[in-house]
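Q: Got a minute? One more chain.
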Amino acid sequence: MRISLERSGGFAGIRLTTTVDTDSLADDEARTLQQLVESSDFFHLPATLMPQKPQPDRFQYTLTVETDDKSHTVTAAETALPAKARPLFEWLAQRARRA
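A: Always. Here it is, folded:
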């Protein structure tokens, strides 16, 4: 599985990006990431998740998950992320900050 995350916006407007391939991760990290994708129900999220009223200085995420048989991209405002998807987005953002 290959996952790409781009986070933009925020007060400082600093872009954060990362691409992770589970084949290159340690087994425990790959399992964690797989579980986060599954528990977020990522492939059933709509392509766009935005609040009705835009909020300045908030983050916007674009996340793409690719497997051998499917690919899905979600663009979401941080305030519109479903609770079940937040751990996935946060795990990837934290990994991008370490890179």
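A: The beta strands are 2-9, 16-21, 48-49, 59-66, 71-77.
Q: Perfect, thanks.
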